[in-house]
Design brief:
The protein is α+β, with helices and mostly antiparallel strands and 316 residues long. The protein folds into two domains: 184 residues, Phosphorylase Kinase, domain 1, CATH 3.30.200.20; 112 residues, Transferase(Phosphotransferase), domain 1. The strands form four sheets. The chain has a five-stranded antiparallel sheet, with helices on both faces. A two-stranded antiparallel sheet has the order 6-7. A two-stranded antiparallel sheet has the order 8-11. α2 packs across α5.
Length: 316
């Protein structure tokens, strides 16, 4: 069903060959001069927050508690990372929670230096929880992806790799013209990207959009599959968890979000994931009186191939 992925040399072309190599995926230059930057900011953070840190550490008797992000509370290490982003100029103000989930929280922030964020001033800061990530759930998205080979088996490295994976997937999609939030930076379990919405008001999920006409829903329906085709053919990715929950609607545009689980089209289960995404979208639109196609037709429209649906069902 899929061909084996081999490691390829980096090129200057826009075919993402360099992004498929293990070394590039774990590139430690995502933040410039990270080692020196961290060392200098650690000293400044310790000086600026010495008394506050002492009070914070008194609350915890165990190191594991000190390193956890639970119930939306920013832990000690995560707070330090946010501070470093502020000192670097990426974040100015760090404000309230936009959304909460079992695996992560998303916070609203504003940029201090918009040159660092491509002129965008409103940011979404996604913080992955360090103790409640469902490792069983992400297993299928890790196995078979060469980009995870260095993540190890311990929870913290896997979480950090998961955040990096979402950053890389968003970047591939954005640079391919897919409508996704533009990613700006990633550090450990923190991902910073474009905020979709305005003035702290987040764009609604597609499932909550109820005021559109039949013609408008038909247009959105077609647009989603065009975006899925662009994601597959240009970014060489499949979302792998697409539904009305993971599509935002804002100012007549749709945005794919939550792409941590997205895999390369060469992944062993890529076809099965794509078919499942198609069926999820069709299920949502089945309640509207619009013209829809069969899953096999849409699969062929996206990939140029006729799917073996019985075989793909066995692979789910």
């Amino acid at each position: 069903m899929s061909k084996k992925v081999s490691k390829r040399k980096s090129t200057n072309d826009d075919d993402f060959d360099d992004d498929q190599s293990i070394e590039d995926f774990f590139d430690d230059q995502l933040l410039d001069d990270e080692v020196d930057f961290n060392a200098s900011l650690d000293k400044k953070y310790d000086k600026d927050n010495e008394s506050q840190d002492r009070r914070y550490r008194k609350k915890f008797k165990h190191k594991t508690e000190d390193r956890s992000t639970v119930e939306g509370v920013l832990d000690y290490e995560t707070s330090r990372k946010i501070y470093k982003f502020q000192m670097k100029g990426i974040i100015d103000a760090f404000n309230g929670v936009v959304s909460t989930g079992k695996e992560s929280n998303v916070y609203y922030a504003t940029a201090k230096k918009t040159a660092e964020t491509n002129g965008i001033s409103e940011l979404a800061v996604k913080i992955f929880r360090t103790r409640t990530l469902d490792f069983k759930k992400i297993k299928n998205y890790i196995e078979g992806d060469i980009r995870f080979s260095k993540s190890g088996k311990k929870s913290h490295p896997i979480i950090q790799t998961w955040a990096l994976k979402e950053y890389k997937n968003l970047l591939r999609a954005f640079e391919s013209g897919v409508s996704v939030p533009q990613p700006f930076a990633v550090k450990k379990n923190i991902l910073i990207m474009q905020f979709i919405g305005e003035s702290r008001k987040a764009a609604p999920q597609l499932r909550h959009v109820k005021s559109l006409s039949q013609d408008e829903m038909q247009e959105i329906y077609l647009r989603i599959f065009d975006q899925m085709k662009l994601l597959w053919t240009k970014a060489n990715l499949v979302h792998a968890d697409l539904s009305a929950y993971n599509i935002l609607y804002w100012q007549d545009k749709i945005y794919f979000i939550d792409m941590g689980q997205s895999v390369l089209t060469e992944h062993n289960f890529a076809d099965a994931f794509l078919l499942r995404d198609i069926e999820n979208i069709l299920y949502f639109f089945s309640e509207f009186d619009i013209e829809v196609q069969e899953p096999e037709q849409i699969f062929e429209h996206i990939t140029g191939r006729i799917p073996d649906t019985e075989f793909l069902k066995l692979k789910k």
